[in-house]
Design a protein that fits this description.
Strand content: under 5%
InterPro entries: AI-2E-like (IPR002549)
Subcellular location: Cell membrane
Largest sheet: none
Radius of gyration: 27 Å
Organism: Streptomyces violaceusniger
Number of helices: 9
GO biological process, one term: transmembrane transport
Distance between the termini: 68 Å
Shape: extended
Number of domains: 3
Order of helices and strands: HHHHHHHHH
Number of strands: 0
Transmembrane segments: 68-89, 154-174, 208-231, 237-267
Structural class: mainly alpha
Length: 277
C-alpha cells in the first residue's frame, strides 16, 4: 500500500465505502418495497398523529386522562375524515348522471366543431375513429376484466392500509414518547444524545409543516370551490375537497387536483370556463 500514490489510496477507500453505502441503500429499498403497504400506512399515521397530537396535549392540560384524551381525539379525527370521504363519494354519485350528460354534450360539440373546423375533418373520418375505439375496447375485454379483478385486490389493500394507519395512529397518540424512547435504544450510545435532541425538534418541524399545509390547503379549497360554484361547474364541492386532500401530496398534488378541476370545467362548460379555472 505504501507504494501506491496518496490519491489512489484515498480514491480506493472512498470507493469501497461508496460500494457499501450503495449496497445498504439497495437492500433497504428492497425491504421497503416488500412491505411498502406497512411503510406507507405508518408514514400516513405519523402525519395524522402530527395533526392530532396537539389536541391530545390540550386536553391533558385541562386535566383529561391520557387514555380518554387519546380516545376522544382519535375518534373525532377519524370520524371527521370518514365524513369527508363519505360526502365526496355521495356528491360524486349524485352528480355522475349530470356529468355524463355534460360529457356527452361536450363530445357532440367537439364533433360539430371538427366538422366545421379548418382541419377539414369529415364525418367518415370521425366515424372511423369511433369504430376503431369500439373495436379496441372489444378486443381488450379480457384485459379490462383482469384490471377489474386487480381493482378488487387494490380495494382490499386500501382497506388493510386504512386499518394499519388507524392502529398506528392510536398507538402513536397514546404511547408516542415511550415509542420514541424505545427507538433511541437502537441508536449507538455515542450518537444517542444527538439523536435524542434532534428528535423533538424534527417533530416540532413536522407538526408546523402539517398545520401550515392544512391552512394553505383549506384556503385553496375554499376559494377554488367558490370559483367553481359561480362558474356553474358540476361537482364543485367534491372538487374542492379533492383540492384540499391532494395538497398534502408534495410537488404534484396541487397540479393534479387543479388539472382535474380544469378538465371537468372544460368538458362540461366549454373552453371559456376551462380557461378561467
Amino acid at each position: 500500500m505504501a507504494a501506491l500514490p496518496w490519491g489512489v489510496r484515498v480514491a480506493a477507500e472512498a470507493a469501497w465505502r461508496l460500494l457499501v453505502l450503495g449496497a445498504t441503500v439497495w437492500v433497504l429499498m428492497r425491504v421497503i418495497s416488500s412491505v411498502q403497504l406497512v411503510v406507507l400506512s405508518f408514514t400516513v399515521a405519523i402525519l395524522i398523529t402530527a395533526l392530532l397530537e396537539p389536541t391530545v396535549t390540550r386536553l391533558r392540560r385541562r386535566g383529561v386522562p391520557r387514555g380518554l384524551a387519546t380516545a376522544l381525539t382519535f375518534i373525532a379525527g377519524f370520524v371527521v375524515m370518514g365524513l369527508v370521504v363519505w360526502f365526496v363519494v355521495w356528491q360524486v354519485m349524485e352528480n355522475v348522471d349530470e356529468v355524463s350528460g355534460e360529457v356527452q354534450a361536450g363530445i357532440d360539440d367537439l364533433r360539430r366543431w371538427l366538422l366545421h373546423s379548418p382541419f377539414h375533418v369529415t364525418e367518415k373520418q370521425i366515424n372511423h375513429v369511433a369504430k376503431s375505439l369500439r373495436e379496441a375496447v372489444g378486443a381488450n375485454t379480457e384485459q379490462i376484466t383482469s384490471a377489474g379483478l386487480e381493482g378488487v385486490t387494490v380495494v382490499v389493500e386500501v382497506l388493510t392500509g386504512i386499518l394499519l394507519t388507524m392502529f398506528s395512529t392510536l398507538f402513536l397518540l397514546y404511547d408516542g414518547p415511550k415509542i420514541w424512547n424505545w427507538t433511541l435504544k437502537l441508536v449507538p450510545a455515542r450518537a444517542r444524545e444527538g439523536v435524542a435532541g434532534a428528535g423533538p425538534r424534527a417533530w416540532a418541524t413536522l407538526t408546523a409543516y402539517v398545520r401550515g399545509t392544512v391552512i394553505v390547503a383549506l384556503i385553496d379549497a375554499i376559494f377554488i370551490g367558490v370559483g367553481l360554484f359561480f362558474l356553474d361547474v358540476p361537482m364543485a364541492v367534491p372538487l374542492a375537497v379533492f383540492i384540499f386532500l391532494f395538497a398534502f401530496i408534495p410537488l404534484v398534488g396541487a397540479v393534479v387536483s387543479g388539472a382535474l378541476a380544469v378538465v371537468v370545467a372544460l368538458v362540461t362548460q366549454g373552453v371559456f370556463t376551462g380557461r378561467w379555472c
